[in-house]
Amino acid sequence: MSKLEALHEIMQNIKGIIFDIDGVFTDGKLHYAETGEAMKVFHVQDGLGIKLLLASPVQVGVISGCSSPILEARLQYLGITHFALGASDKTPPYQALLEKWSLEDKDIAYVGDDLPDLPLMAKVKLPITVANANPLVAAHAFWQTQRQGGEGAVREVCDAFLQANHCLEQCMEAIGHGKLP
Question: I need a labelling partner for 9 at 20 to 30 A (CA). Which of 29, 147, 158, 165 fits?
Fold first, then answer.
């Protein structure tokens, strides 16, 4: 069995996906205005990927070490209701999500990019990282995306799950985007 076939087989048994934000949804860069206001950039394709994934049977969550109104607004816009922001130790919110979803480590995929993500990546069935992840983190991932954080990596993950579970077209219809040609 090839690594791609193994990846798709694992994805078919995943019931929950948890994402980090900075470095995964964003490029990890910090932008500050002269007034000190922080700004973050998100990729529109990642947003559609999340909306499609939310229409699937897979639970979607976010755990981030950072907390800001910008992040919360983005998550609310996308419809992600299961999130924890400002979690320097990501394990307690992770355990809370598992309880809420009635799932176990073997049911979860986690997408991260840096050292604070390693404890969760070590727990889950499918540890994933983005193309520009810290090399120490990438060494612990089963799969590393081809796209970088903030540049479509989230969409790559979402599309892979939807394709592995044969539900992309159903999800497109569920969110009102019609059928694929």
Answer: 147
